[in-house]
Task: inverse folding
Protein backbone atom coordinates (compact mmCIF):
# COMPACT_ATOMS: atom_id res chain seq x y z
CA UNK A 1 0.00 0.00 0.00
CA UNK A 2 1.43 3.39 -1.01
CA UNK A 3 0.16 6.81 0.02
CA UNK A 4 -0.06 9.80 -2.27
CA UNK A 5 -1.26 13.38 -1.94
CA UNK A 6 -3.53 14.36 -4.81
CA UNK A 7 -4.71 17.93 -5.47
CA UNK A 8 -8.10 18.37 -7.16
CA UNK A 9 -9.44 21.89 -7.71
CA UNK A 10 -7.14 23.25 -5.03
CA UNK A 11 -8.18 20.66 -2.43
CA UNK A 12 -5.49 18.22 -1.21
CA UNK A 13 -6.52 14.61 -0.62
CA UNK A 14 -4.40 11.84 0.85
CA UNK A 15 -5.05 8.53 -0.91
CA UNK A 16 -3.74 5.01 -0.49
CA UNK A 17 -3.01 2.94 -3.59
CA UNK A 18 -2.49 -0.80 -3.65
CA UNK A 19 -0.48 -2.20 -6.56
CA UNK A 20 -1.82 -5.42 -8.05
CA UNK A 21 -0.01 -8.06 -10.08
CA UNK A 22 -1.18 -9.56 -13.37
CA UNK A 23 -3.19 -12.15 -11.47
CA UNK A 24 -5.05 -9.44 -9.52
CA UNK A 25 -3.35 -10.31 -6.24
CA UNK A 26 -1.65 -7.57 -4.22
CA UNK A 27 2.11 -7.35 -4.75
CA UNK A 28 4.29 -7.82 -1.68
CA UNK A 29 5.25 -4.59 0.08
CA UNK A 30 8.93 -3.82 -0.59
CA UNK A 31 9.42 -0.87 1.69
CA UNK A 32 7.45 1.57 3.74
CA UNK A 33 7.70 5.32 3.33
CA UNK A 34 6.60 7.62 6.13
CA UNK A 35 3.92 9.87 4.72
CA UNK A 36 3.88 13.54 5.59
CA UNK A 37 0.54 15.11 6.43
CA UNK A 38 -1.09 16.74 3.45
CA UNK A 39 -0.59 20.47 3.42
CA UNK A 40 -3.53 22.65 2.55
CA UNK A 41 -2.90 24.38 -0.72
CA UNK A 42 -4.55 27.75 -1.16
CA UNK A 43 -6.34 27.87 -4.48
CA UNK A 44 -5.24 30.64 -6.81
CA UNK A 45 -7.72 33.46 -7.16
CA UNK A 46 -8.90 33.54 -10.73
CA UNK A 47 -11.14 36.06 -12.32
CA UNK A 48 -14.62 34.59 -12.58
CA UNK A 49 -16.20 34.99 -15.99
CA UNK A 50 -19.22 37.21 -16.02
CA UNK A 51 -22.34 35.13 -16.54
CA UNK A 52 -23.76 35.44 -20.01
CA UNK A 53 -27.51 35.64 -20.42
CA UNK A 54 -28.87 32.22 -21.33
CA UNK A 55 -30.34 31.89 -24.78
CA UNK A 56 -34.06 31.45 -24.44
CA UNK A 57 -36.48 29.98 -26.88
CA UNK A 58 -39.82 31.60 -27.51
CA UNK A 59 -42.35 30.57 -24.89
CA UNK A 60 -44.11 27.36 -25.85
CA UNK A 61 -47.86 27.55 -26.13
CA UNK A 62 -50.13 25.34 -24.04
CA UNK A 63 -50.01 21.73 -25.18
CA UNK A 64 -46.73 22.19 -27.09
CA UNK A 65 -43.83 19.77 -26.73
CA UNK A 66 -40.29 21.09 -26.48
CA UNK A 67 -37.27 19.20 -27.76
CA UNK A 68 -34.18 19.85 -25.66
CA UNK A 69 -30.57 19.08 -26.54
CA UNK A 70 -29.70 15.66 -25.10
CA UNK A 71 -26.02 16.61 -24.83
CA UNK A 72 -23.73 19.56 -25.59
CA UNK A 73 -22.79 19.93 -29.24
CA UNK A 74 -23.07 21.89 -32.48
CA UNK A 75 -26.08 21.98 -34.79
CA UNK A 76 -24.93 20.66 -38.18
CA UNK A 77 -28.25 20.85 -39.99
CA UNK A 78 -31.83 21.99 -39.36
CA UNK A 79 -34.12 19.91 -41.57
CA UNK A 80 -37.45 21.56 -40.76
CA UNK A 81 -38.94 25.04 -40.81
CA UNK A 82 -41.54 26.77 -38.67
CA UNK A 83 -45.10 25.78 -39.62
CA UNK A 84 -43.98 22.51 -41.21
CA UNK A 85 -45.93 19.31 -40.49
CA UNK A 86 -43.82 16.46 -39.09
CA UNK A 87 -44.55 12.85 -38.25
CA UNK A 88 -43.24 10.92 -35.28
CA UNK A 89 -39.57 9.88 -35.85
CA UNK A 90 -38.98 12.38 -38.68
CA UNK A 91 -35.44 13.80 -38.45
CA UNK A 92 -35.74 17.39 -37.25
CA UNK A 93 -32.08 18.32 -36.97
CA UNK A 94 -28.57 16.89 -36.79
CA UNK A 95 -26.46 17.50 -33.67
CA UNK A 96 -22.72 16.85 -33.65
CA UNK A 97 -21.39 15.76 -30.27
CA UNK A 98 -18.05 14.09 -29.57
CA UNK A 99 -17.33 13.94 -33.34
CA UNK A 100 -20.48 11.93 -33.98
CA UNK A 101 -23.56 13.05 -35.89
CA UNK A 102 -26.76 12.45 -33.91
CA UNK A 103 -30.15 12.73 -35.58
CA UNK A 104 -32.76 14.38 -33.37
CA UNK A 105 -36.20 13.04 -34.24
CA UNK A 106 -39.74 14.27 -33.68
CA UNK A 107 -41.22 12.61 -30.59
CA UNK A 108 -44.76 12.97 -31.98
CA UNK A 109 -46.80 14.05 -34.98
CA UNK A 110 -47.35 17.79 -35.09
CA UNK A 111 -46.47 21.19 -36.49
CA UNK A 112 -43.15 22.90 -35.85
CA UNK A 113 -44.12 25.89 -33.73
CA UNK A 114 -40.66 27.43 -33.23
CA UNK A 115 -37.00 26.71 -33.87
CA UNK A 116 -34.55 28.20 -31.37
CA UNK A 117 -31.33 27.06 -33.09
CA UNK A 118 -29.74 27.42 -36.49
CA UNK A 119 -26.95 25.68 -38.37
CA UNK A 120 -23.66 26.23 -36.51
CA UNK A 121 -25.30 27.01 -33.14
CA UNK A 122 -23.67 25.63 -30.01
CA UNK A 123 -26.06 24.02 -27.55
CA UNK A 124 -25.71 22.74 -24.01
CA UNK A 125 -27.54 19.74 -22.61
CA UNK A 126 -31.10 20.79 -21.82
CA UNK A 127 -31.21 23.81 -24.14
CA UNK A 128 -34.56 24.04 -25.96
CA UNK A 129 -34.03 23.55 -29.69
CA UNK A 130 -37.50 23.06 -31.21
CA UNK A 131 -41.12 23.33 -30.12
CA UNK A 132 -43.79 21.09 -31.69
CA UNK A 133 -47.54 21.53 -31.29
Result:
Amino acid sequence: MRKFNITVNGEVYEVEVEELGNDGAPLPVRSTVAAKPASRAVPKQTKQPTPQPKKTAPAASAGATTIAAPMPGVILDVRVSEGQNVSKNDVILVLEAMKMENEVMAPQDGIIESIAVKKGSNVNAGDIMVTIK
The chain has two domains: 1-43, 65-132. Strands lie at 2-8, 11-17, 65-68, 73-78, 85-86, 91-97, 100-105, 110-115, 122-123, 128-132. The first strand starts at residue 2 and ends at 8.
